[in-house]
Design goal:
Length: 335
């Protein structure tokens, strides 16, 4: 049974605000996992004869990375670059949910369909919305990745890191490094939210408002599917946006294909999936909390809008009653 589509009572701005609020809350709660997965994805295991990466720590896994980072930099080290990350998360998710809501509403309106779009259409709409969001928000992602991979002694603020990127060989265009990989990766949110809509109709048919645990379950399931399918591209994108590994002697990667080739040559094909443990765990928690929070915030928006409309109606009715009373009293006053 398909879920019947109805016009969104809060519109694209409300959906976007709800999505951004949920994303910021979720990412703030699990930020250390985001930092760790980034460090795991950019590290290159040095060979016995290769000494160029001797000064770079090599983490064996998620817990090993957390222990070493906390030991070297303190608990604060696990939150390095968080401010920039949350700005990026808020802007990306606001843009994504806004455009996704707009294009989905337009599709349903002009195709005059009574049910949800098909899975292929959902994926296409999600990809289009994701591409639009990436064009505007990728500079923040580039800066955040740089901040997360900086050593403690080289750590800089948001503006200083942006200046460092701009002063590189790519100039201002460096802020859009990895754009092609990011555009390819729009399949990730497309799969995520397309799967979310599909699973919602299958597991909870006919429900327009989900309970927190239901939204969490759907969000976690859909994000896991998307992460497994796109992990090599995620690793390549991080490699593009971070500083090049010591083996490259300062030479940045030019494409995500070049990153993938480098990883395969130096570490083997399975390394294209490095960092997948914290990536999936982070995705499970973030997407679950995000969708759970988004559903609650949307409900609050709906209640707020209804309250405003009711208040306006009461005010208008009161005004009309006073006007009627005034007209009835006016002739008596004239006499």
């Amino acid at each position: 049974m398909a879920v019947q589509s109805k016009p969104a009572p809060i519109g694209p701005w409300g959906k976007a605000t709800a999505g951004a609020a949920g994303a910021v809350l979720a990412n703030a709660l699990v930020y250390p996992l985001d930092l760790v997965k980034t460090k795991l994805q950019v590290q290159v295991k040095p060979s016995e004869t290769d000494k160029t990466a001797g000064d770079e720590p090599h983490y064996k896994g998620t817990w090993d990375a957390i222990s070493h980072i906390a030991g070297a930099d303190g608990i604060a080290g696990l939150y390095a670059g968080m401010s920039g990350s949350l700005i990026g998360v808020a802007s990306t998710n606001f843009a994504y949910f806004y455009w996704y809501s707009v294009v989905r509403t337009l599709y349903i309106k002009y195709n005059k369909t009574s049910g949800n779009p098909s899975t292929v259409v959902e994926l296409s709409l999600g990809a289009f919305a994701g591409a639009l969001a990436q064009l505007f928000t990728i500079p923040v992602a580039v800066i955040t990745t740089r901040q997360q991979t900086q050593k403690k002694e080289d750590r800089k603020g948001l503006i200083e890191t942006a200046r460092e990127v701009i002063e590189g060989e790519d100039g201002v265009c460096g802020l859009w490094r990895g754009l092609k990989a990011s555009l390819v990766l729009v399949v990730n949110p497309a799969i995520t939210y397309g799967a979310y809509e599909r699973l919602k109709g299958i597991i909870f048919p006919g429900k327009t408002s989900l309970k927190p645990w239901e939204a969490f379950l759907l969000g976690a399931m859909s994000k896991s599917l998307a992460t497994i399918a796109t992990q090599p591209l995620i690793v390549a994108k991080v490699g593009l946006q971070s500083r090049p590994p010591p083996q490259r002697q300062g030479k940045p990667f030019k494409s995500f294909i070049e990153v993938m080739q480098f990883i395969i040559e130096n570490e083997g094909p399975l390394s294209l999936f490095k960092g997948m443990g914290p990536q999936i765990l982070k995705g499970l928690l973030v997407q679950g909390i995000l969708m759970m929070t988004k559903e609650r915030v949307e409900l609050l928006f709906i209640l707020f809008v209804r309250y405003i409309r009711t208040a306006r109606s009461r005010h208008a009715a009161r005004g009309a009653a006073l006007a009627t009373a005034a007209k009835a009293v006016a002739p008596l006053t004239v006499k």
